[in-house]
Write a structure and sequence with these properties.
39% helix; seven-stranded mixed β-sheet; four-stranded parallel β-sheet; binds iron/sulfur cluster; Transcription Regulator spoIIAA; Rossmann fold; alpha/beta; 17 strands
Length: 429
C-alpha cells in the first residue's frame, strides 16, 4: 500500500527562496503532495493537525544565527501538535554544517547540502516505506543520539530544477548562478554549494520569466553570489553572456516590465565594476543602485579573508558606479579575525571616503559561521570608538545595517562552536 505524504512548511520570510526551490523540485518531479504553510508556530501546529496525509514532512530552514530561536519554536510546535505522523526536517546552511547540533536540538532529520534531490527522494522513500538511510543528503539520529550521515546529495546542473514552483505566492527571484569560485573565509556559499559556478541557461531563465509574467507580475530579480560572473567559469566577467541573459529577459517581459540586476538580493564584486559593465547594465536594468562587496578598508584583512581584491578596486568601483549613474551600497564587515585598531581605522576612513563619493555603507559584524574556514576564529574586538564612528555614519544617513544585532549573534555562534568541536560525523553507507 502506498503511503500518502503531506508537506507542512514552517514558512518564514528570511528563507522563502530556499523553500520555494524545494517545492519547485517536488513539482518538477511530478510528486503530488498536500502542501500547507505555517507562518507562526501556532499556525504550523494547526496545519500539521489539519493535514490529511499518512506521513507529514515538516520543513524547517534557518540560518545559523536563528538556530536557537528555531529550536524553541520546534519545541512549541511539538507541544501543540504531538502528532506521530510528523517528521520534522531542518535544512539549509546551518543543518548542513552542524547536523549534530540540529539533531540534538530536537529535529528528526537534518538535510545536508542542496535539498532538491533529497526532498524528492525522501517523499518517495516515505511513500514506498523504504529505509531513509538510502536517501542521499540526510543525517539521521542513531540509537545513541549520534547524527549519522547518508550519502552526499548530488549537485546537479541548475537547469535540473526551477527556482520556484508555479503558484503565484511562491514566485520570486530567479537563481541564475549557484556555487562560488571565490574563497572568502567568512562565507558559507562555497561550502554549501561548491567552489565552482553553475549557471542557469538562458533558455531556462526565459521559461522562468514567462512564469512570472503569466501571473501578471512585471519585475524580475536574480539570485547569484556575484552578478557579473554570469556565464563565466572564472574570475573575469563575460559581458557578452551577461548581455545575452539581460536581452533575453527583456524580450520576454512586457514593455512595462523591469529588470533588477546587481542589486538586492545579489551583489557585484568590486573588480567587476568597469565603465563597460555599468553601461551594459544601464541599457537594461531598472535599479538605480548596485550592491558592491568591499568588506574591509584594510588590505591586510582583505588578504587574510581571502577576498581576492584590495581596497583600491573598491574605491575605483564606487567612482565608476557613481559616474555611470548608480548609487553604490557597499558592504563592510567589522570585527574580522585578526583585525586590529589600525585595520578598523582604515575601514572607517574608506567608508567615510566612499560615503563622500555618494555611496551608502551597509555595515555588518563578523560572525563565525558554521561550515566556513573561520567557524572557530575569534571575532576581533570592536571598541566603543569604532561603534560611535559607525553610529555617526548612520546618523548622517550614510550607513545602515544590523551590525549591533549581529554582534550578539556572533557571541552566540562562538558558544555553539565551542560546544560542538569540529569532527567528522559518522557515516552509514
Ligand atoms: S562572499 Fe561572495 S564572492 Fe566571496 S565566497 Fe561568498 S559568495 Fe563568493
Amino acid at each position: 500500500m502506498t503511503v500518502n505524504v503531506g508537506v507542512v512548511v514552517r514558512y518564514r520570510k528570511a528563507v522563502t527562496y530556499g523553500v520555494h526551490a524545494l517545492l519547485a523540485a517536488l513539482e518538477a518531479a511530478g510528486t503530488e503532495c498536500e502542501i500547507r504553510f505555517g507562518t507562526t508556530p501556532e499556525e504550523t501546529a494547526a496545519e500539521i493537525t489539519a493535514c490529511g496525509a499518512d506521513r507529514i514532512l515538516v520543513l524547517w530552514s534557518f540560518y545559523s544565527p536563528d538556530a536557537e530561536a528555531m529550536a524553541a519554536e520546534l519545541a512549541a510546535v511539538r507541544e501543540l501538535a504531538d502528532d506521530p505522523r510528523a517528521l520534522h526536517v531542518a535544512g539549509g546552511v546551518h543543518a548542513t554544517a552542524e547536523p549534530q547540533h540540529v539533531i540534538d536540538s530536537g529535529w528528526d532529520l537534518a538535510g545536508i547540502g542542496e535539498g532538491e534531490s533529497t526532498i524528492v527522494a525522501l517523499v518517495e522513500a516515505l511513500r514506498a516505506g523504504t529505509p531513509l538511510t538510502a536517501v542521499p543528503g540526510l543525517a539521521l539520529r542513531d540509537d545513541d543520539g549520534v547524527a549519522l550521515r547518508t550519502g552526499p546529495a548530488p549537485q546537479p546542473p541548475l537547469d535540473a530544477f526551477p527556482s520556484f514552483p508555479a503558484p503565484r505566492r511562491t514566485v520570486g527571484p530567479i537563481e541564475i548562478t549557484r556555487g562560488c569560485r571565490y574563497t572568502c573565509r567568512f562565507c558559507q556559499t562555497p561550502f554549501m554549494f561548491g567552489g565552482r559556478f553553475r549557471h542557469r541557461s538562458v533558455d531556462s531563465v526565459r521559461e522562468h520569466v514567462r512564469r512570472i509574467t503569466a501571473h501578471g507580475l512585471r519585475d524580475v530579480r536574480f539570485i547569484t553570489p556575484t552578478s557579473l560572473s554570469y556565464g563565466s567559469p572564472g574570475p573575469d566577467p563575460d559581458l557578452d553572456a551577461v548581455e545575452e541573459l539581460l536581452s533575453a529577459v527583456r524580450e520576454e517581459l512586457p514593455p512595462h516590465g523591469r529588470i533588477f540586476f546587481g542589486s538586492f538580493p545579489s551583489e557585484v564584486r568590486p573588480e567587476h565594476v568597469t565603465p563597460a559593465a555599468m553601461r551594459l547594465l544601464k541599457r537594461y536594468v531598472a535599479n538605480d543602485n548596485i550592491i558592491i562587496g568591499a568588506q574591509s578598508g584594510s588590505d591586510r584583512v582583505l588578504a587574510a579573508s581571502g577576498r581576492g581584491h584590495g581596497a583600491d578596486p573598491v574605491r575605483a568601483a564606487v567612482r565608476i558606479a557613481v559616474a555611470e549613474g548608480f548609487r553604490p551600497n557597499v558592504d563592510f564587515i567589522f570585527g574580522m579575525p585578526g583585525e586590529d585598531a589600525t585595520d578598523q581605522r582604515a575601514s572607517l576612513a574608506l567608508a567615510s571616503e566612499l560615503a563622500d563619493l555618494g555611496a551608502r555603507i551597509h555595515t555588518h559584524t563578523f560572525m563565525p559561521l558554521p561550515g566556513t574556514p573561520w567557524r572557530d576564529a575569534e571575532p576581533a574586538f570592536i571598541p566603543l570608538e569604532t561603534m560611535r564612528a559607525l553610529d555617526r555614519l548612520a546618523q548622517r544617513g550614510d550607513a545602515y545595517g544590523h551590525w549591533r544585532k549581529q554582534a550578539e549573534h556572533s557571541a552566540r555562534l562562538a558558544e555553539t562552536a565551542r560546544a560542538y568541536p569540529r569532527r567528522a560525523p559518522r557515516r552509514r553507507v
